[in-house]
Task: structure prediction
Amino acid sequence: MEHLDTFLTVLYVMVDDLCKQHSLSMPRHPGPAPKLGLSELLTLALFGQWARFPSEQAFYRFAQRHLKAAFPMLPDHNQFVRGEHACAQLIEQIACLLASLRLGQSEELYQILDATGVPARCIKRRGGGWLAGVADKG
Result:
């Protein structure tokens, strides 16, 4: 568990630095303020993707059991998922920035493999549009 704590701490510091460098902020929405800060939310979202959990629910159960000390203000699952969805573009941006930082520091050849699903088109529609014939339903 020490390696996990170290990894999360390093990831959080890097994400927080990038958020400050690029003046990123949480998207505004009506209602109460989120329990997690932007850097915390992005850190948890990236960790959930990189650790290859079988589902969002499995990741959240793991976070509740093992990450409560690092993230004491962890909201309930629905609020966390809403925050993730609201910050989807920021998560992608931070992931790309982290990859460029890592790739820029090394002379070795790296390949980035990301198995994160991204919406390509509405599966209920056929016909013209982006990826027509490639991402059709069926």
User: Anything to note?
Assistant: Residues 2-104 form one domain. Residues 69 and 127 are 50 Å apart (CA to CA). The chain has a mean pLDDT of 80.
